[in-house]
Hints:
- This protein has 15 helices and 7 strands.
- By secondary structure, the protein is α/β, with parallel strands linked by helices.
- It has 3 domains: 1-103, no CATH class; 159-164 and 166-230, no CATH class; 235-454, no CATH class.
- Helix content is 48%, strand content 9%.
- Strand 3 (246-257) and strand 4 form a beta hairpin.
- The longest helix has 61 residues, at 13-73.
Amino acid sequence: MLNFFSYLYSMNYKKLAEISQAQVDVLTSAVKDLSSTVKSLTAEVSELKKLLLEKAQSKEEIERKLNGLLKIHLPKKIEKRNTVDKTLKINKPALTPKERGNNGSKRKEYYDLLEIEEFVEPTHPEFVKAKATYLFTRDVIRYEYIPQKLIKHIYKCNSYRVGDRVYDAKTPVSPFLNSNFDSSVIADLIQKRFVYGLPVERIIRYYREMGFDLPKSTAHGLLTKAAELLDKLTPVLKEAILSDSYIHFDETYHTVLDKKYAKGSFKGYLWTALSSRYKLINYIYDNGSRSTKVFTSYLPKSYSGAIQADGYISYKKLDGWDYPKAIRLGCVQHCKRYFIEIDDQKEAIDIIDTYNKFYLIRRNHPKDKWIEKSLVVYDELEAKLRALEKSKECLPDSKLSKAVTYCLNELEAIGNIINATDYDLDNNQIERPMRYISMSRKTLCFVGAKRGLVEWR
């Protein structure tokens, strides 16, 4: 320590000043370099922050545009149910096996089927079950189809004697006397023939593929006997339908072969009556006639209730004095159909939209508001039809003119619907079962005899 102070004392004052100044210069240079580095880092951080902000804004803009595109291209029904996510979801978690499906929707499970459980073990060649530790079991559902089959059911009928009396076992009752066919076979024949509209030849081929060679004559015989048996229920069926205060009526045709006509065939009409309350339907055939007498002979003059049908002239009898206690209800769909057949005409589209308002009212408003709001639409509809009738676009014998005339004639019948809340806006309840006859027209082309249409009853 003494040597250090002796060294300082021996040094010159100027020498010490030079050393101090050199140290200050070194420190000043270091500070300048550090300041420059800080400024450069600050500029880089600012630029990076700016880039991040721009990227976040572009991401937000992209998400907004993508969500807009999703809403545009999705179906309207899905959009109304608010099933579209309003934010773009990234890194979506993996779906569980039960949730996996189209667009993440759950797969439908059918719980009313026969279930068979089968345990499946790993088949890897290196797997040894004795050395393995059980982890878990996952369920994989597969639906299998087992083709329909016919069963030859042999009843072993035993007979016994007790004293002087003999007891014979009896088989279940057969629909037809001395028939080898159970009621299930006959019901299947009727369903394939009259519900699905299959011709007898195709039904026979269907059975043949199952290993059962059913003769064509036997199939026709079973169908004929079934028609005769079921026809005994017609009076009771008619009585049950006429006891309802709300009945649907309609008619359609089928081509019937008959040598009496020049073309070798004619249009045979089938009439139908359906009970709205009991859901019973009665097919009526009177030699293929479409005469009003078929309708009036079925419906008694004393009938008290509502009959819903289209604007066919036979049903107009309900508007007169022949049926003082009955009212006729129109069909909104039949009225719309005339305007739908008109191609791209704004007047027709406007009328269709007006008719659709009746459905919107019943869908979106409580029942106690139906009459009040429907009457407003009814007045609007009548005003539009009256104005359209007088317009220059409504030329005589044009589709628009025929549509307007039909709808004006049906205004009162439509008014009978909306003045109550217990009636349907259309006649679709009976149009649906009538579709089976339309299907038969396409698959069969014609019926070989009048008896074929009688069997529809």
